[in-house]
Structure formats: structure tokens, C-alpha cells
Amino acid sequence: MTEKTVNPFVKLGLELGPVVLFFVFYGRIKDEFFTIGGVEYAGFIVATALFIPLILASTAILWWLTGKLSKMQLMTAVLIVVFGGMSVYFNDERFFKMKPTMIYLLFGGILGIGLLQGKSYLRSVMEEVLPMQDEGWMILTKRLTAFFAALAITNEFVWRTMSTDAWVNFKTFGLTAAVFVFFMFQNKLMQTYAVTVEDQDT
Q: Which residue, 15, 88, 95, is CA-closest to 50?
């Protein structure tokens, strides 16, 4: 299947929609308990159970609309299924709360391995939409590796020391805002090392 063009707002809605729905649904049932199959589940676990098919559905629709999924999207979906499924199966919210930590450690670790080899794996993923010189890619990759490590540590601190409500707010808004701010502050780097049409023609 060839890659197709999709409305960026539709794409953004599919990527963020499941997270927003999880936040809304959790807010409605967070203080409730549900008995299913003779086992009592807290609202957080039920919201997690519903989040898994939502993320799978949104990922499948993205693939259907675009004809392509990035490795990051696939790995994120797999980790959500694994850690979300473990939370539901063991009736233990800690597994799902650890999921962002695992995602950021995995992505940061992959980028770090590339850096040790003198390569930017980030470039192979983003070069088509963000053409930059080699030096710019290496700088951005180093920064993003450190950023992922910081997010993993922060997530561990929040879920281990704060309430579930605080973690849900952090996961829904804090992490999203952090990623946005990080890339906003990379604008100067991207402009400095941008590859122009003249560079591509030489």
C-alpha cells in the first residue's frame, strides 16, 4: 500500500483522540468500582481496558488512511497493549503507569545506540519532512535522547509519589505540552542546519 495524503487535523485527532477519551472517561468513573466476572475493578482499570481497543482502532484507521505507520507508532501501540493488558489482567494500575517510562526508555535507548555508532536514527525517520545537515541531525538526536531520559525519570517520579488523578493529568497534558515545548525550542537549530534547495542541487 502506497502512502496517502491525509488531512493533518484528522491525523492529529486520531493520534490524540484516544488519550483525550481516556481522560474524559476516567474523569467520569474514577471513583466507581465495577464487578466483572466476580472481580472488582477500579475505574482506572476499566478506563485502561477501554483505551486499548481505542488506540488499536485509531492506529488501524491511520494505517488505512495513510498507507503507512512509523516504527514509533507501532511500538507505542504494542507497549500500550502489553502494559495496559497487564494492568487489566493483574488488576494492577502500576503496569499502565509504567508504560510511558518504557516507551521513552525504548526510544531514547534506540537513539542512544545510534549515537554510539556515530549515526542519527532520528534522521532516517524524519528526514523527508525535516531536511537538515548531518551536524544538525546529530545535535537534535543528542538532545532528544536526553529529553526522553528526562521524561522517563519524571514519569517514574509522578506515578510513584503522586495520586492517580495527578498522573492522569500529567500523562494527558504534561507530557504532550513537554514534547510541544521541546520541539518549539529546537526551531533555531532546525533553521541553522536546514537544507535549502541550493544545498540539495549541489
A: 88
